[in-house]
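Hello,

I think I submitted the heme C job twice by accident. Can you confirm which output corresponds to this input? Input:
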Amino acid sequence: MKPSGLQPRWLPAALAFMSATALGGTVSFQKDVMPVFMARCVMCHVEGAEQENLSLYPDAWAQLVGVPSKESGLKRVEPGAPDKSYLYLKVQGTQLKAGGSGARMPFQQDPLTPAELALLRQWIEEGAQRN
Ligand code: HEC
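Support: Only one job matched these inputs. Its output is below.
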């Protein structure tokens, strides 16, 4: 899109579109999401020593998508609906409002960056694919 072709009245829509696709197309579970889990989560959510019965390694996808959370009535990940996905609420720190419990994740550590949160959000919005 050439800047000269951008009518001011289209600007809000264009900006919304650009932020939705700021990560450049479809998020990959393996290439984009897993590295965040590996860097920030697996030390406490690994098979054999998993907190809250959640293992994010080796098969995070199977433990998340469509699986009921232990702490709330929500699924851990509800494809297409980040705000109904308990994992997303936990990393955002809004789990209590949704009837959940416990702390923001990663537990007692710095929150995920805005870019990492946006990545998880986009992955869920795109249907939480195993891609
Ligand atoms: C230092 C250890 C630690 C780290 C790191 C950590 N967690 Fe947790 N996690 C816990 C503990 C302890 C609980 C249970 C208590 C609570 O919820 O506060 C928990 C619970 C959860 C739950 C609730 C599971 C359910 O079914 O109800 C989710 C979802 C979760 N963690 C996701 C994550 C994600 C995603 C990351 C990385 C971004 C992460 N955690 C990093 C320790 C950790």
